[in-house]
UniProtKB/TrEMBL annotation:
Species in which this protein is naturally found: Candidatus Magnetaquiglobus chichijimensis
Official protein name in the record: Glycosyl hydrolase family 32 N-terminal domain-containing protein
Taxonomic path: Bacteria, Pseudomonadati, Pseudomonadota, Magnetococcia, Magnetococcales
Source organism, top-level taxon: Bacteria
Amino acid sequence: MRIHGWEKRGLVIKPDQKFWWSCTHAMVPTPLHIAGSVYRIYFSGRDRYNRSHIGYVVIDMHDPAVVLEYSSEPVLGLGALGCFDDNGVTPSCAVRVGDEIRLYYIGWNPGVTVRMHLFGGLAVSKDGGNTFQRWSQAPILERCPTDPYLNTAPWAVWSGEEWRLYYVCGTGWRHQDLPRYHIRMARSKDGLHWQRDGHVCIDFAGEHENALARPYVVLEEGIWKMWFAHKGEAYRLGYAESQDGCLWERMDERVGITVSSGVACDSEMIEYAAVINHHGQRIMYYNGNDYGKDGICLAVEA
């Protein structure tokens, strides 16, 4: 079994304070292939009120550390007052479907008895990903009988027969500020309406774990592969594989990357990986300390 090894290249996508929506953070890198070796990397920056908006950079994977373009305006902003995403939006998955691009995203909403509410939303672009409109003002992942807590961070993949949605699902709250959540799966024929039965893909390794976050799933040569984040005290990256995309085996020891020593952008935590396979070379964009407050880091498979 291959163990991935990575060469870190440091911060490459940083907040740009000349843009009102990007005062701090560049959070949850979400790639979309444009053409050839060119990708658009969506992420969320925060405004001066600490609210998240979705923008992007353009990068050619021939030189994955160089930003060619930075969006001056967000492609998706806050939802209407009272909606599930009125306090922030963060990308989770961008996928082409016909002549559309679907952006599955995280909607942020402050709570009262608990710190926050998080649900999955969907926006659609008909202009190549330059702008997006909400498919619905309601979430596509709301509470349901099997999932009564938060339901968020959707990652959609076409299996060849159906759509699969891997998502973060709450299992309860340890206290007002500490939710507990793992990774489940939903199914769909159209990628819009989802059937959920509580199927767990990646579960907690033990009582010490509180969070399994941002599934990033690819199907390569008949093997389903998932990068995700897991947290006890602080986030680390995990890895899992599956023969059918339903039953998964955690192989965290194979992820090949962890926090850096000394003073570094990822010295305390590492999370939210996006892995691009460019001509057989894996390129990883990920967040580090304080959930990407300083930006998005780069690592290249060694």
